Amino acid sequence: RKEVEQDPGPFNVPEGATVAFNCTYSNSASQSFFWYRQDCRKEPKLLMSVYSSGNEDGRFTAQLNRASQYISLLIRDSKLSDSATYLCVVPSSGGYQKVTFGIGTKLQVIP
Amino acid sequence: DAGITQSPRYKITETGRQVTLMCHQTWSHSYMFWYRQDLGHGLRLIYYSAAADITDKGEVPDGYVVSRSKTENFPLTLESATRSQTSVYFCASRNYRSEEAFFGQGTRLTVV
């Protein structure tokens, strides 16, 4: 099993829709998880951290399911500006200072 | 300017040439990282550094060399460029107290 797996998409959703992405991971000892956002041809930027209790920031909600070893990102009321690639990030089994990035899920919000 | 900067932003080089990509950060972050991003692979770690003079291999280190004589600089050298090293290279840094990594704008390298 890969350290982290994501559906690359693309997910094409209309404005105002709710969309969810999942990301599965293999290292059951992982403690910290993140979602990064990457716009086309730009650098990745931290979107939000994922805590055991979940994390909500406006229209964005991140959840962790340890039993099934996946994290999720829910985007409500999608905006055109949400169009980007969303990267799942999990700690690497090689050491706490390293992380593994998922391949990313591409979201396209259409008018 | 404050932040993390990479240079050059774009580079075309020939097979067999040595190429150095520069990365500079002004935050005095302990950790610095080099990633490459390719279609179908996402971001893959090449090398990382926990502090000046401390470096270690990542997932795909072959063909690359790094050094970190100063905290703020972390250059990546391709000793003898190959076409398979055509990629977008991202440098990142992180404070040891924080889990958030900050990325440079990337260097788009083409080896012909």
Sketch the topology of chain B as an H/E string, one letter per element.
EEEEEEEEEEE
For the sheet with most strands of chain A, the description reads: 6 strands, mixed
Radius of gyration of chain A: 13 Å
Percentage of residues in DSSP E strands of chain B: over 45%
Overall pLDDT level of chain A: 90
Count the beta strands of chain A: 11
Instruction: Determine the structural class of chain B based on helices, strands and strand pairing.
Output: mainly beta
Number of helices of chain A: 0
- Tell me which protein chains meet in the greatest interface and how many residues each side has: A-B, 19 and 19 residues
Structural class of chain A: mainly beta
Distance between the termini of chain B: 33 Å
Descriptors for this entry?
heterodimer, A: 111 residues, mainly beta, six-stranded mixed beta sheet, five-stranded antiparallel beta sheet, 11 strands, globular, B: 112 residues, seven-stranded mixed beta sheet, four-stranded antiparallel beta sheet, 52% strand
Overview of this structure, please?
The complex is a heterodimer of chains A (111) and B (112). Chain A is mostly beta strands and 111 residues long. Chain A is built from no helices and eleven strands. In chain A, the strands form two sheets. In chain A, strands 2, 4, 5, 9, 10 and 11 form a six-stranded mixed β-sheet that branches. A five-stranded antiparallel β-sheet of chain A has the order 1-3-8-7-6, with no helix packed on it. Chain A starts with a strand and ends with a strand. The mean pLDDT of chain A is 90. In chain B, the strands form two sheets. In chain B, strands 2, 4, 5, 6, 9, 10 and 11 form a seven-stranded mixed β-sheet that branches. A four-stranded antiparallel β-sheet of chain B has the order 1-3-8-7, with no helix packed on it. Chain B is globular, with a radius of gyration of 13 Å. Chain B has strands at 4-7, 10-13, 19-25, 31-38, 42-51, 54-57, 64-66, 76-78, 87-94, 102-103, 107-111. Chain B starts with a strand and ends with a strand. In chain B, a hairpin with a 3-residue loop joins strand 4 (31-38) and strand 5 (42-51). The mean pLDDT of chain B is 94. With 112 residues, chain B is mostly beta strands. Helices cover 0% and strands 52% of the residues of chain B. The A-B interface holds A 32, 34, 41-46, 49, 87, 92, 97-104 and B 31, 35, 40-45, 48, 50, 58, 90, 99-101, 103-106.
